[in-house]
Amino acid sequence: MKVTMSENAGNSGAEEQFVQLFCDVFGVEKGQFVYLQHPFVDIYGNHRTIDFAVMTDDEKIAFEIDGETWHDPGKVSREKYIDDLLKQNSMIFEGWKVFRWTDYQIYKTPERVKDELITFLGYSPALTYFDGDTPKQKGEVFKLREHQEEALANLVKMRENGKTIALVQGATGSGKSAIGVLDAKQTGKRVLFLAHTKELVEQGVSNFEKLWQGVSVGRFYDEYHDTDSFVVCASVQSIIRNLEQFDPNDFDYLIIDECHHASAKSYRKILTYFHPKFTLGLTATPERADGEDLLEIFQNFAHKLNIKEAVETGVLCPVRCIRIKTNINMSDVRINGFKYNALDLEETIMVPDRNNLIADTYIEYANGKSAVIFCTSVKHAEVLSDMLCERGVKAKAVSGGIKTAVRKQILDDYSQRKIQVLCACDLLNEGWDSPITEVLFMARPTMSKTIYMQQLGRGMRLHKDKEFLMVFDFVDNANMFNSAYSLHRLLNISEYVPGGLVLGTKHAIEWDKDMFQKGNKPAVLIDFPVYAMDYEVIDIFNWQDKANKMYSEMELIRHVSAQEETISRYIKEGKIVPDMNVPISEHKTLHYFERKRVKEYCEKFGWTEITPSNRKQLFLEFCNEMQMSYSYKPVFLISFISCMNERGEALLSDVAESFAWYYEDRIKNGLIAEKKPCIFTKGGYTAKDVERLILASPFKRFEGMGYMRHSKYLGVIQIDKCIMKTFDENDISDILTYCTDALERYWGS
Which long-range contacts (CB under 8 A, 24 or more apart) does 545-548 make? Predict the structure, then answer.
């Protein structure tokens, strides 16, 4: 019997379709950077979710997929319509770029949605992982930790060596903000501290006041316009709007908090305006899709503190893991791009046996401990909560769908240990974590590294009564390419012993491993029914991580001077052998190539490697290649250039009209329209016939090389943006000369 999806499960048919469209445009491997049901708080403190969220080097982007009635004030209640506007306005206020579609658009005009995605994000957006929630500052004395001392020493050494830019990267809660304050203090130079939200600005003020006593600290945002203090803590937006109030040499030390935003246009304005003697970037981002732009701005890593180092230095708590195998077969669960098909997943895992296993595992292994169970849906959370209550456990289901006051009360009760277990179908509140959490149950299969890491972070805060966090991974049977994330896959650890330490100091991990090898169970596991002699080597292969370091077939095409159809044919014929094949469905397989193959294939097949620096030149050379069976190519180029705007775009209808006029003019002047039979020699053609001819013949070659693209819904042809960056009047003149000469040769032969 099919399981009915909960209304608040966070999935819909239209959203499933959007996932597929996103992957069609950018590639499945980009899906790992997409956050589903991203939590955020509106301006009134209400907890909400964004359907889909991505982060680039420049901005946070939200995608909302709703029914048509949500957009039409005549079809929805006034209260609902106003509430929806509040949500959108709050997202914009918090710095989100928001794009919305109706489910009708997703289903009925998918090509338009694809075109718009490319327009909004570009061809190959450099997506990055979300960096998690920043916890609120506690009223405690800052204590200089080991990694901070090392970072401060490195920064001093870098300046002695003449370096002017550095980046400190650390996990959330690692104390990296203190590094910036203390380093600025030891230089004694005037400081500008920048952050992208008012809350982070206030945290900066607090940090400077606590760690650099006696220094004057001022604010510069909203109604605050302090320009004279020795330390100025400012929001990016306010500084940009008031650059004229500052001299470029006002500050010797510039600190940029959450510096993964540093490549955004707004940050670039600041970085190019001010001339500090030293610039320090701070970020909690654990991993980036494309770090080149960031490294060009913050070139020197003073210290990189990842999650392992944060645990090793005692900033976050150690983590142990127990894997619980289920009898659930996930092999037939379809993948919608980068996520499990919601209906398939719900039908597969929402079964009594698996739910009983989860509830019984808590009773057997963690009874009485504070635990969070991450569930697939509201329904799943409610079922597990009920099952635990039946077993005498104080458990509550919690989600973004319940009223704010009720949700807050549940979380408060949990923090006060009045509730033992939270069954959550989302990531709880943005920024929420509870140091008392001793156990996490990963009962929600996910292919998203972002979601798994955020779930893990909910339990890693230090607490005086907690020696470690125990993670229970519920491992369902799956194939190589639809396996869910687990702690061992996340950390790339192939050796597993039940309850073994996976995150801790190097000494503790070695001691723990030695204990197990000797057949002794560590004393801290006395309450857990695990056996010291159990050992397993597990498969931690992760195709998404591997693919992210490779080129997809689409990316390969953009890097070599060969037609798309040529690449596809060579793969079918076995002349090009992919380094990894990913069967997404019965009828679709994705091909990936090691990046070194580009040079190998260019040498083997006589192609040229395409780079940003030579892309325009290769385009011009391609325009000059005029081996013609018909006169279409030069006529197309002349027609396109005559209709092209400054962005390299032209309406296909305008190009077709100019294209047809060329042949009609020849006929009018008593000349043959074309040497071979075609629509112009036969006559009776329509404007659409001309458009189809252009797309099928001359344009297709440019598209196949990645030099041009066709926005089907908008009816626009455009030159690749990388080419247009340096495209000028001289280039246009050269192309027109190529075309004129080619036509003279063609008709003169």
Answer: 545/449, 546/580, 546/592, 547/28, 547/29, 547/580, 547/582, 547/590, 547/592, 548/29, 548/32, 548/289
| DSSP conformational letter for 609 | B
As given in the structure block, the two tokens for residue 196 are 């992208």
- Indicate the helix (H) or strand (E) that contains 14: helix 13-26
Check whether 37 has a pLDDT greater than 70: yes
541-551 confidence digits (pLDDT tens): 778 778 888 99
How far apart CA 565 and CA 615 sit, in angstroms, is 20
pLDDT of residue 143: 31
Amino acid at 103: D
Reference 322, options 176, 521, 152, 179; nearest CA is: 521
Nearest-angstrom CA–CA distance, 570 and 206: 62
- The string of pLDDT tens digits covering residues 259-271 is 765 445 666 677 7
Q: Are the C-beta atoms of residues 434 and 323 closer than 8 Å to each other?
A: no
- Rounded alpha-carbon distances, angstroms, from residue 68 to 72, 76, 81, 84, 180: 7, 9, 12, 13, 48
Q: What does pTM read for this prediction?
A: 0.61
Comparing 329 with 162, the larger pLDDT belongs to: 329
Determine the residue type at 120: F
Cβ(713)–Cβ(112) below 8 Å: yes
d(CA 492, CA 64): 34
The residue assigned the tokens 């499960």 is 9
At 373, which amino acid appears? I
Query: How do beta strands 421-424 and 47-56 pair?
Result: unpaired
DSSP 615: H
CA distance linking residue 112 with residue 521, whole number of Å:
60
Token pair of 353, please? 């046996």
DSSP 401: T
How much is the pLDDT for 9?
Answer: 35
The Cα–Cα gap between 411 and 431 comes to: 13
Residue 356's CB: how many other CB atoms inside 10 A? 13
356 pLDDT above the threshold of 90: yes
For residue 507, is it left (φ>0), alpha (ψ between -120 and 50) or beta?
alpha
Residue 709's DSSP bridge partners are: 718
The reported pLDDT for the residue numbered 292 is: 42
Collapsed DSSP state (helix, strand, coil) of residue 600: helix
Three-class secondary structure of residue 474 per DSSP: strand
Q: φ, ψ for residue 270 (rounded to 5)?
A: -70, -45
| Averaged pLDDT for residues 249-259 | 87
- Given a contact cutoff of 8 angstroms between Cβ atoms, the answer to whether 662 and 643 are in contact is no
| Cα–Cα distance measured from residue 202 to residue 323, given in angstroms and rounded to the nearest whole number | 42
Distances (CA, A) of 421 to 311, 381, 475, 720: 25, 11, 21, 54
Residue showing tokens 């000028």: 728
- Exposed e or buried b for every residue in 183-219, given b needs 16+ CB within 10 A? bbbebeebbbbbbbbeebbebbbbbbbebbeebebbb
Report the alpha-carbon distance of residue 746 to residue 93 in Å, rounded: 59
Given the structure tokens 């580009």, which residue do they identify? 598
**How far is residue 491's CA from residue 473's CA, in Å, rounded to a whole number?**
13
Nearest to 42 by CA among 84, 8, 79: 84
What's the mean per-residue pLDDT of the chain?
Answer: 83
**Measured between alpha carbons, how far is 725 from 647 in angstroms, rounded to an integer?**
9
Contact predicate 90/43, CB 8 Å? yes
Q: What is the pLDDT of residue 301?
A: 32
> Contact, 475 vs 330, CB < 8 A?
no
Please work out, in degrees rounded to the nearest 5, the angle formed at the alpha carbon of residue 78 by the alpha carbons of 75 and 80.
Answer: 85
DSSP state letters, 247-277: -TTS-SEEEESSGGGTTSHHHHHHHHH---S
Residues 161, 180: Cα–Cα separation, whole Å: 19
Instruction: List, in order, residues 6 or more apart from 83 with CB less than 8 Å away.
Output: none
